[in-house]
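#struct-pred
JK: can someone run the complex with LLP? inputs below
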Amino acid sequence: MFNEATINRFQQLETPFYYYDLGILSKTLEACRAASSKYGFHVHYAMKANFNPKVLDMIQSFGFGADCVSGNEVKAALEHGFGKENIVFAGVGKSDKEINFALDADIFCFNAESVQELYIINDLAKAKNKKANIAIRINPNVDAHTHHFITTGLDENKFGINTWQLAEVIDALRNCNNLQFLGIHFHIGSQITDMEVYKNLCTRINEIQDWFNDHGFEVKVLNTGGGLGVDYHNPDNNSICDFESYFKVFKDFLNVKPGQEVHFELGRALVAQSAALISRVLYVKNGQKKNFLVLDAGMTELIRPMLYQAYHQIENLTRKSEVGSQKSEVGDQVVTSDLGLKALDLKYDVVGPICESTDCFRKDVELPQSYRGDLIAIRTAGAYGEVMASGYNLRDRVGSVYSE
Ligand code: LLP
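RT: done, structure tokens with the ligand placed:
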């Protein structure tokens, strides 16, 4: 991801920033497109993972649809050229304003997450003399075996409609003349790496689809959601997900009827490996028990480690590229080191500048001896990175830089 020219370029730039390798992004998108189109599967990109404008433009250019979870995401999808017939709108708490906006935009489908929401969409559609396409988001009670903060398909989660409420759904669909039932939707969690989980999901989808058929409802769309995980530990060796194996599970285990469409909503798998958060070491604190590297990026730029105890690989780019003597500059201070070919590895707690103890990217990270001004890369940050940045502590908004 980083050659010498790229690192030299970073030396001239103000940190922190997200660096997007558009080459990795396009290879990933191509791999996903090839593997999904083999079976005629449709992929809607889960925009929540990253709505950086250049990222969206590239994803749109590969022909993916958009999976949105707010009115503003629907708006951004339209602005970036995603066709309205390729936009789905999910979310457990869609406001009337957002529903009206999506109705006016004639999007492809609402993924409805409660019986009450069905009646509200129906009323709002009726007022506009329209029919809204609906997929029912069902909570299949399948364990995603991932971090509990990003598990969504269990009975205890707030998402979707539980199977024991499906009779009420049928009543609602029969009573609501301004709804057009299209299909069923599932999303059981994120960062799923065990394909057995998806096999279990297929089994549940098959059962639920049969239930709808038995009640006289034809299911035109099977939407299996997203969640495919990426390799946070080996971003260089494994920069592109095994989309082939992922889609093959659905090909082999999902009971797809003639004429039926199968939809996916991948977010992380499409964008995670294409970006790194680049920051500089502000201070090195050597304690008796601990060494700290204090970076100019923190939880305000990348909150995943603090929120989900997520692992991200951390690299010292200045020392990595080092052969012989290397200079790095911060402001008017110039640090010169002559480490030779082998730098001594030390353990550092890599922390941010925010006034919170939890503002730590990782403890005991083995790194070459590091100095003020060194460039640090935090890898696999393209998904749920820039989009989850905040202005806490009145911090500047994190920048973005793209490969040339
Ligand atoms: N569809 C629905 C309905 C979703 O809720 C999500 C993600 C996706 C698709 C896309 O999932 P993906 O393919 O990206 O796993 N901030 C957390 C992840 C939250 C995921 C929210 N929903 C993280 O940084 O790990």
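RT: quick notes.
Confidence is low (pLDDT under 50) at residues 321-342.
Residues 46, 48-49, 67, 90, 150, 187, 190-191, 225-228, 265-269, 304, 308, 383-384 surround LLP (CB under 6 Å).
JK: thanks, will look after standup
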